[in-house]
Design goal:
Helices cover about 20% and strands about 30% of the residues. It has about 550 residues and is of the alpha/beta class. The chain starts with a helix and ends with a strand. It is built from ten helices and 29 strands. Strands 4-7-10-11-12-13-14-15 form an eight-stranded parallel barrel, surrounded by five helices. Strands 18-22-23-29-25-26 form a six-stranded antiparallel β-sheet, covered by helices on one side.
């Protein structure tokens, strides 16, 4: 063992139950536990170079968007308990969950599905709640859908969160008339009977619909259509989506998924904005499945290192999937009018044993935190076209921010990463280069050790995120900054001892961000030297 290997970096992480400023700049520790991770660094530091004068596009805040589908306990129980519930709520929405979501600055919520959207009939969800029809949720567990949450409740949720709205219309089993009338009900500002009906139900002014989706997964649960058939239907349905100028949402076509770029290609070639029809962007879906096999996806916890690396490798595919789709858009839409919106993404595991298979309930571990951060770093690098993404889903479903059990709730590691990345919302992307970035390998699988992204936040400060994918070894990173003099550093890290560390109702604070120790983050001769613990996400603010 040479002297280098003898040099063990003890990355002492002061684990604080911190009151964390939402911009990550100040911390007030109220209690401490200490974790010491002794890790051997690699031989030479990873070299990151950021030219702070070369700015890129704005990282749209909606890249941090959420998805709330009528699925399992995602909406009912997880967020909506109804005004009569003993669980403290505001007009039916749980105060604890809404409070936590507000702290992570949810910028946008997509609703009501997903597959559910193409069986949702908006008239079922208006008027007196006790008189609304009961339907069966045939997509998700075949349970009763009582329609307690409908249009007005959703917009109240968005208001309480201070979030933009993305309403997904029913193309699959609806009609152009039904979709057009929903749009009129939502946005009409005159005396039309639908605008008056909305007023009768308590909402005078039009709702602010920011995005409207024309169907969902038309190639699958949304109607098993060919792209040609969907394109014709889009033209037909979207022609009748009319709204007063100030209330017109951006209209999003339902696009492709995974490796298939034909939807992006065909839609962007064949749908054109007309005088009476909008086309503002298209969607794309990609889920991270550890094994890559839908029939046996892999467990959310208790996995071995082979599924740690396969999950991260599969999630990193997002970069090439986006690139392949953007290549089609650059060709078909050179003026960059169309946005590319990954409106479903995240991990999809085998459901937790003993839970309803149709509810898609899964635990959420440190691995999910890294998945989220790796995707954010990818989305930032495509911010020119990727204007919105929606992680699936917000509460209790798939890669959730929050899990609930009766009146209890916990924040997942994914929640914490979203909160750590808040400074990136609407920040100016700063391209960076990474050199000397060794691969982390296991058997025949390898991925880059470090993923990084940098931006100038809206408050003018620089922000840098780093992910160390290696679960066994810390990484030394040297950041060369040109065009900026730095005198102050603050940082936070999210890590844990186990790859599948997660929060439980018995121990809800097992995984949470802590202040990055000053030893792990130093300025030397104008360079920033960082020690990034194994399997961690770090966000540093530079002033
Ligand atoms: O997010 C769960 C489901 O995944 C959505 O309803 C559907 O669009 C996708 O297949």
């Amino acid at each position: 063992m040479n002297s280098f290997h003898q040099k063990i970096i003890a990355a002492t992480i002061i684990s604080t139950l911190s009151t964390l400023s939402t911009l990550g700049g100040s911390f007030s520790a109220s209690a401490t536990t200490a974790t010491t991770a002794a890790q051997t660094p690699q031989k030479a530091a990873v070299q990151i170079t950021i030219d702070t004068k070369k700015t890129g596009p704005v990282i749209n805040k909606n890249i941090y968007g959420q998805f709330a589908e009528h699925l399992g306990t995602g909406v009912y129980e997880g967020m909506w308990v109804g005004p009569e519930s003993p669980i403290p709520n505001t007009r039916g929405w749980r105060n604890d969950v809404i409070g936590a979501l507000k702290k992570m600055h949810v910028p946008l919520v997509r609703w009501p599905g997903g597959c559910f959207a193409d069986e949702y009939h908006w008239r079922d969800g208006i008027g007196a709640r006790e008189q609304r029809p009961v339907k069966m949720n045939t997509n998700w567990g075949n349970v009763e859908e009582r329609n307690a949450v409908g249009t007005h409740e959703f917009f109240d949720l968005a208001d309480q969160l201070g979030a933009d709205t993305y309403v997904n219309g029913n193309l699959g089993s609806g009609t152009p008339q039904e979709m057009a009338e929903w749009m009129e009900y939502l946005t009409g500002d005159g005396k039309s009977s639908l605008a008056e009906l909305r007023r009768k139900h308590g909402r005078d002014k039009p709702f602010k619909v920011d995005f409207f989706g024309v169907g969902n997964e038309a190639w699958g649960c949304g109607g098993n259509m060919t792209v040609q058939h969907y394109t014709s239907l889009y033209n037909q349905y979207a022609s009748f989506l009319k709204a007063p100028k100030d209330y017109m949402p951006k209209i999003i076509a339902s696009g492709g998924h995974d490796d298939d770029t034909t939807w992006t290609d065909y839609l962007s070639k064949n749908i054109h904005e007309q005088w009476n029809m909008r086309f503002d962007g298209l969607s794309f879906h990609y889920y991270t499945v550890p094994t890559g096999v839908w029939e046996k996806k892999g467990a959310a916890t208790g996995f071995a290192e082979d599924q740690w690396i396969s999950t991260l490798k599969n999630t990193l595919r997002m970069d090439s999937l986006i690139k392949n789709n953007l290549a089609k858009l650059v060709k078909n839409d050179p003026q960059n009018k169309l946005s590319f919106n990954v409106d479903e993404w995240g991990t999809w595991y085998d459901v937790e044993p003993g839970t309803n298979a149709g509810f898609l309930y899964q635990q959420n571990s440190l691995r999910d935190a890294l998945v989220a951060a790796l995707n954010f770093n990818i989305f930032h690098s495509h911010a020119e076209r990727v204007k919105m993404t929606n992680i699936a889903q917000m509460v209790n479903v798939l890669q959730a921010m929050i899990l609930t059990e009766k009146d209890k709730m916990l924040l997942t590691p994914t929640y914490h990463v979203f909160e750590m990345y808040v400074p990136f919302q609407n920040a100016q992307f700063l391209p960076l280069t990474i050199k000397n970035n060794p691969d982390y390998r296991l058997g025949k699988t390898s991925i880059p050790t470090i993923s990084a992204s940098s931006a100038r936040a809206v408050d003018g400060k620089l922000v840098l995120s780093l992910v160390n994918t290696n679960p066994n070894q810390a990484a030394e990173v040297e950041v060369n900054l040109t065009g900026e003099k730095i005198s102050k550093l603050t940082g936070r890290v999210l890590t844990a001892t186990a790859m599948d560390a997660h929060n439980t109702f018995a121990n809800p604070a097992a995984v949470q961000p802590v202040v990055l120790n000053a030893n792990a983050m130093q300025l030397k001769e104008g360079k920033l030297q960082l020690s990034i613990p194994a399997k961690s996400v770090v966000v540093v603010r530079l002033e």
